[in-house]
Each structure stands twice: as structure tokens, then as C-alpha cells.
Amino acid sequence: MTDTPTNKPKLLVADLDGTLLHDAAVFENRSITQRSIKVIEQAHEAGYQFAIATARPVSTGLRFAQMLPVDAVIYLNGALIDFDPAHSDFKSLTSASADDNPNLVKVGFPSQRACEVCLQLLQAMPGLQLGIVMNDVRYTNFDVRKYWKTQAFQYTNFQIEPNGNVPQGTADKITIFPEQDQWEALRPLVPDDFSISISEGVMWMLMNPQASKEHAFSMLCERLGVPVEDTVAFGDDLIDINMMRAAGRGVAVANANPQVLEIADEVCPANNDDGVAQWIEARLQ
């Protein structure tokens, strides 16, 4: 983060869950208010560019992108970046042909490597709940409806086709749901060619080290032609910290993780009080 605040930023980047969205009893019911939609529309009309940076996959993030005037969308914590959201749909973002789309950037790893890592982890820790996310399908050894009611999944033996059901191609991430007493033993088992991010204190994500909100944010600035010092990033969770530090201003919602609040340049009201919208409203006056 820079030491000098920007008076009128040119690019606003916001996380979804815990930041822009209101909370709900279940994941699927988290929502964005009409107030937030209207304020972001007004900001866009006033010349601000706007982007979403979320750990969500396309299946649960796309609908919010379609509700807002977005100039770019970072999905899967940086593993997929869409630079043409106005012309994107679920099929174009998740099909195998997405690898050849010049308006999409995929930052993953070979699915064969993902299978190898999953099998290595299971050999060391039998019973570990984990899976591979690829083209918005979860290839897992557990029923993901325990956590998400609507996301597509297939049970797998972590073998590449034709011996298994994991297709050849680029995988986005490996997700793991370790029990709390498994954390200490799990961390040293993660291979060096993967980075670890932990979402909401529950889900571990093993990813290409370049698949991060921070790296995706820098690509946004370059592609959209916006100097870093003219940006603002909003977040609430640990996976938002590096992006917020990289931005001209890092703004935490009041409900953010204490470590996020500690590094933030500013704190706006909580997500359930439309804190991001309130922050933008104050600068549109």
C-alpha cells in the first residue's frame, strides 16, 4: 500500500463474501443489496472502473458479476481472470476452450499433477477430505453438499481418464477440508510447487503460486491501464491481505479478520451495513 491516499481512484476492486455480500445462514443465500448495486452503477457512470476479486468459482460468482457493471472478474482466488465479462457466460468461462480465449487468463497446473498430490496426501493422511476443482467441477472423495448445496461434483479415485474420471487439462486448485487437529500435520505435506490459502478459517486451497488475488490485481492494473496508486481494494479475509497491501488504498470492512483490520489503510462499515457502498457514496458526493 502507498502512504499517500488517492483523492479519486480510477479502479475499485472488491471481494464478495464477507465484504460486498450480506451474510446468510447458508452459503447459497448470501446476497448483494440494491443499494450496493445502485452505488456501484453510479460510480461506474462517474468514471470509476470496477472489478470483483473472489475465491468463488464461476458457478456461484457469475450471477453477481452479471448484476454489476464489472470491467473484470477475478474468480477462484486468481486462478481464472475474465477481462471481458460483458460477453461471458458460464459455458465460455468453464469449457475446455477457455484455455484459448484471449480475454481469459487461467493460472493453474496440470490435472495429472493435481491427482498425484491428492494421492500423496491421502497416503499420508487417510480420510482427508479433498478434491480437485477444474472447469467448475469438483472431483472429490466426499460429498461437497456438506458445504455447498448447488456446486457440481463427482466422486473420484484421483486418476486421469480413462482409468479414472479426472480429465486431462488445467486444474484450478485443490481444496481440502482438514479437521482442526490435522492442520499441523498437513502443512509440511504440501509440495513446494503449491501455495496455501485458507478461506474463512475452514477450507485450504492449494494453488499455483501465481494464482493469487495479488497477482491477478497487478494484471488488472496493467490490462486496464490503471496505475496502482489510483486503486482501492476492499476485503475482509486473510486471502485479501496481499491484494489490499498492493493497492493504492486497502479498505477493510468492520467485520474483517483482525489481521486484515491491522494492515488496512481505512476501515469502512461492515458488510451487512453495505460498508463498501457507504465508502463509495461518500466519494461520489
Automatic annotation (TrEMBL):
Alphabetized GO MF terms: magnesium ion binding; phosphatase activity
GO terms for cellular component: cytosol
Pfam families: Hydrolase_3 (PF08282)
InterPro entries referenced in this protein's UniProt entry, alphabetically: HAD-like_sf (IPR036412), HAD_sf (IPR023214)
Domain of life where this protein originates: Bacteria
PANTHER family from the UniProt entry: HAD SUPERFAMILY HYDROLASE-LIKE, TYPE 3, PHOSPHOSERINE PHOSPHATASE
The protein's name: Haloacid dehalogenase
